[in-house]
What we know:
The protein is α/β, with parallel strands linked by helices. The chain has a domain at 240-336.
Amino acid sequence: xxxxxxxxxxxxxxxxxxxxxxxxxxxxxxxxxxxxxxxxxxxxxxxxxxxxxxxxxxxxxxxxxxxxxxxxxxxxxxxxxxxxxxxxxxxxxxxxxxxxxxxxxxxxxxxxxxxxxxxxxxxxxxxxxxxxxxxxxxxxxxxxxxxxxxxxxxxxxxxxxxxxxxxxxxxxxxxxxxxxxxxxxxxxxxxxxxxxxxxxxxxxxxxxxxxxxxxxxxxxxxxxxxxxxxxxxxxxxxxxxxxxxxxxxxxxxxxxxxxxxxxxxxxxxxxxxxxxxxxxxxxxxxxxxxxxxxxxxxxxxxxxxxxxxxxxxxxxxxxxxxxxxxxxxxxxxxxxxxxxxxxxxxxxxxxxxxxxxxxxxxxxxxxxxxxxxxxxxxxxxxxxxxxxxxxxxxxxxxxxxxxxxxxxxxxxxxxxxxxxxxxxxxxxxxxxxxxxxxxxxxxxxxxxxxxxxxxxxxxxxxxxxxxxxxxxxxxxxxxxxxxxxxxxxxxxxxxxxxxxxxxxxxxxxxxxxxxxxxxxxxxxxxxxxxxxxxxx
Length: 536
């Protein structure tokens, strides 16, 4: 027993030595956490912090899903050794909370449970994450194919897409009597995960079990677009009959040319027969023509031939029929009509939607939580609801102190169109922001601060180049301030004010998420308008 005890103590000492030397301890699992005792002096590292792995000097380890991120596009200074591991969000969060990485790159805010786990492990995160870019989820139908409305409450979006949904017709949400179908990305896609969190309220590790059984799954955004616009099915039908159609079109052209030329020849021969009869009549009556008269008759006969040929050609074109091609074209049109589904709604990244906004019609979305946050934070809010009697927008300025009496955010639809403005300012309920999470301990390391400062300074340009929504200058200044103050939030200068934005349903905030608004007396909410019709 004594030998076994000594061996265990020796193994523990060796493990502690490895951690102290900066060896990667990811394979060792979550470090053992001990409860701090009352003997810990104020300002000194707690017992929890001392048990965390020691990060190697000169190395910055970043983790997160590569898809939907701009981290891999950031060019770092030559003196920095930066690694970016493409892992799932769940794995990245676990490594951040275990102290195994320096920076976490995620397209969502951490859940309350994840924040508590980091806290229990002794990882004190910065007062708020660094916002480096924004994106959003857009749900859209086929453009120029109206389903009866374009505004849905966030809860209605959930009812449409959630597992076990019985909504299979747009009339069930107050729109036209059109069959409703859904489509989107596979469950391993960050787009799916963000949609599940923002719209369905699934915190993490969402799967296809969280969506309706007839949800049409595709592995890329282009395939989802093809599903919504029926491109794939239409192309398949056209490809099936392409060879036969081309062959019949060639045969028709040959037959058409032969038919028209024959009609022209017959018209010319008829006119020549008429001229011959006229010449015989003149010969029988012994009419003598001068040279000038003969020239005039020749010119008139040529005009008569051309006119007859043109008339014959027009009649031939009108009367030509090629039933084989006509029947095939009718069959193809019938098949295309049967394979055209107007009511398919797809889930897209905002950056992809922007590329094909001529083909897609996005749904405006409103959320009582977002409306309530706007009302509570703005001094005066200018609303533009639709007058249901005249179907005309009417503008109303609502004082903040009377907003609760005049507007009920639970029943007043504020339909928000997805745009760069509404995504950045947080008024669009399906906005997805890209965050960098870092601990205050790691922010004390010079290499981490250098990496993050370089990142934030380049984030606007990189986001724009990669079809993301870039952060504004105020957000950039706030990010740099957090880095400079080792993760401690410091109020910006008095020319701007900070207001807390609403978190997505089921998504608690980490610290205080802030946006800036001018200190004017009236705040107009960009992209927020009323809706003529909204879902239940």
